[in-house]
Amino acid sequence: MYKHTISTGFITGIASLLVSTCVTAHASDKGAKAFFANDQRARIEGVWDSSVTVHVCGDPRAELRTFRALNLFEQDGSLVATSVAVPPPSLGKWQWLGGRKYHAEFRFLRLDPAGDFAGSQHVTRSIEMGATRDDFTSVVRIEVFGIDDKPLGAAGCALESAHRVL
Fold first, then answer.
1. Do residues 83 and 121 both lie within one domain?
2. What does the DSSP 8-state code read for residue 46?
3. DSSP string covering 107-119, please?
4. pTM (two decimals)
5. How many Cβ atoms are within 10 Å of 151's Cβ, its own excluded?
6. What is the three-class DSSP state of 3?
7. How far apart are the C-alpha atoms of 20 and 35, rounded to whole Å?
8. Range of the domain at 15
9. Residue 152 CA to chain centroid, in angstroms?
10. Quick one: 127 and 146 in the same domain?
11. How many domains does the chain have?
């Protein structure tokens, strides 16, 4: 039978390690709370109702159509969007660039009138959050791809204004 003896030094060392870990974790937690309490980043997470106006690239006054959309910006950087113009859900991601600026992009599948696959569309947005943090505007680039994933024509342009719903 083996007899295990644990030295007082070993126990003191383990106790010191545990105490220092707890103190560090508590300090980190307090630091994180202070950081987020003073965080000047305009938070985009949440649900946004937006108005998107597609226009001739280079001339925002030459409007082609306007439609409503809903966007869900998740805390993990994922994005789900839908609109009256594009019934299938759009899936994408977003990234904070600093200050009130964000980059977002998403894709969705396009369907023809019979409901068959007609290609995809890729939308890229440069977003600037408003001063109230409850609205944003964005400059939008739209790329349309055929069923072979090759671009169909030139990219499109749009302007978007949105307000926070949730």
1. yes
2. E
3. EEEEE-TTS-EEE
4. 0.72
5. 12
6. coil
7. 22
8. 1-39
9. 27
10. yes
11. 2
Residue 128 phi, psi dihedral angles, 5° rounding: -125, 120
Strand partners of residue 161: 51, 137
Pair 30, 80 in one domain: no
Helix (H), strand (E) counts: the chain: 1, 8
- What CA–CA distance (Å, rounded) separates 49 from 123? 17
Residue with tokens 């009138």: 113
Q: 53 and 123: one domain?
A: yes
Q: Do 18 and 64 reside in the same domain of the chain?
A: no
Residue with token string 């003073």: 38
Which residue's entry shows tokens 């349309």? 144
H, E, C per residue of 15-33: HHHHHHHHHHHHHHHHHHH
Same domain, 33 and 92: no
User: Residues 49-65: what's their mean pLDDT?
Assistant: 93
Q: Which amino acid is at 91?
A: L
Length of the chain: 166
Q: Are residues 70 and 24 in the same domain?
A: no
CATH number at 96 reads 2.40.160
Structure tokens at 158: 């749009």
pLDDT category at 39 given cuts 50, 70, 90 is low
Mean confidence (pLDDT) of the chain: 80
